[in-house]
Predict the structure of Protein FAR1-RELATED SEQUENCE.
Amino acid sequence: MTKFSSRNGCLTLRRQCPCGVDHCIIRNEGDEDDLSLDPLVEASIPHGPSQTASELMIDDVPPYVGQSFRTDDEAQEYYTNFARKNGFAIRRERSKGNPAHPLGVYKRELVCHRAGQSLPRKTAELKRQRNKKSSRCKCDAQMIIKKNVSKGVSRWVVVHFSNMHNHELLDSEEVRHLPAYRNISSVDRENILTLAKRGLTVNNIMRALESEKGLKPGQLTFTERDLRNFLQASKSINKENEEAKLVKACEAMKDKHLDFRFEFTVDENDRIEHIAWSYPDSVQAYRLFGDVVIFDSSYNLYAYERLFGVWFGLDNYGNAIFFGCVLLQDAKPHSFKWALQSFVRLMKGKFPRTMLTDLDMGLKDAMMNEMQSTKHAFSIWHVMSKLSSWFSPLLGSQYEKFVSDFVRICNLDSMVEFEHQWNQMVVDFGLESDRHITLLSYHWHYWALPYLRGCFLGGLTRSGLPPSIKSFFKGSLNSQTRLKDFVEQVGFAIDILNQAGEEATLRQNYQNVKREIIESMQFAVYETARENYLVRHRLMMDGGHLVRCVQPNDEIQCSCQEFESSGILCRHALRVLSLKNHFVLPDGYLLMRWRRDSSLFPKSTGYKFRSQALRSLASIVIQESSVSKDRFDYVQWHMSKLLAHVRDMPVVDETPSDVEPISSVDAGLSLVPLRANAGEG
């Protein structure tokens, strides 16, 4: 059976190009996984960009014990790629852990699709289905992964791998017909519905898709029967009835939670036109972190022909947090205008300082009219996601060099230098008459980083788009979601988003400050006038940044405008503060949004938390130590020693509250004064 719920399911990336030409579309095939990558950020990381599981597959290298992955999904994708190239499929067999466990799910067994015994079917199923022989034959091939948390970072590690199969493996032609690899992607689903509306038959739709992809007949990832089933399922949707049920679902949610907020409009036929909603915790989160908002309107709810937009923010850990979402009838300026108005009303009238959006001219016009006090910027990751579609076919083998030059130029500090090198790049690649380059050039001020310096972006130029935003769209919002269930499904997706925030223990922005302090030691300071300084790297003979430090108010400004952009003092300002013997950051330069007491997920240390954590840990110890006598004897001896030691410890609890106390790190970050005079290299 073909899987319709894989990947983004009912959501598909919008394909209309912002250049405005009707026949110009953005090729989204496979782009869902790339949307959250920010090449501008990755280019500045010495160890290079992080790799996806598919990129890690080199020369059919099998998994190995000790191999680690960022997530269990990444591990499963790696094993899936290996399996497909080697003639079999995999499935999840068993898992250990649950959402209530401190580690969540901490162990997974991934097995060959022919593992285990055939499952007996119920009598009703036997009557309904033809009697097919089970493919299961007790195959022992498997990969077992466990979650390992070290210094606040969780990784999934391969603890066992076996590639011993007791059956013949399939060739490349046979393996693609396995149910695990037969799927209709979100892009194909949208194309199929479009072609079906034009009156094309199933056979003609298959031929059209094969022609578009340059494939021979029979090489698509689905069959004509799969396509017929998909079209039949799509026809069963009653859009008008579903819309009415969506409103009722919002009303029911409002009855349960008084702080749940929603609003909608109807058209002249009394059908739902637009609807927006937000959950109780979102307004509180917006009060703390609503200075920077990401409005992602790049997805369509294609089965219902609606645009799906989500407002996200960033918390003090750099994790994505949900503010609200909207379903719009279309992507016209008046629809976006209503969306922006409704968002401000949902957030009790508070406007954000900065809003980042996709490169959309209709949304740009709506922002100019409705949010004049808010800085509007086009998110650089959305710009980057379009480069391949715009320039790869045109430039061919020169495309990679073009992207490299694009990233380098976008990281320049000076607007003058940016414009000079940009114009030179356009000439070098012969793009003077290209409409997409013209579009980008005309909107420099909206997306080019030299023009956005001084615009508060909450550190997004450092960290890029949080991966959890991609997970939000990939997770619970699948093709089985009916419109009436959308409010609940979005709630599930928010829970997953919040879980990522709760698991985050590394203070990314604290690490950024720490890095700036360390890097500041490489800079020399020259006093140019009273309370004015030139700060330059010790290896540079010219250039540098101007820093003004006014006492006694501790007012400090740097020409790089890093604090204005990220809310974190730059290395140049920190170098001057160190020179002037400041041992803590001035209070006004440690923003409330970065402090621990602003966290949406305070770490509990009360009796209830400790008891539950120890019970969960004891459960794991029992499971692991009961496997063999050697393990049991080892654990029993050490547990006896541990118990005796614990009983000798004092019972006074220094932190009796249920909320972790705020450390001195949040009250002020220590600065190490340098034993150097002004002008010292």
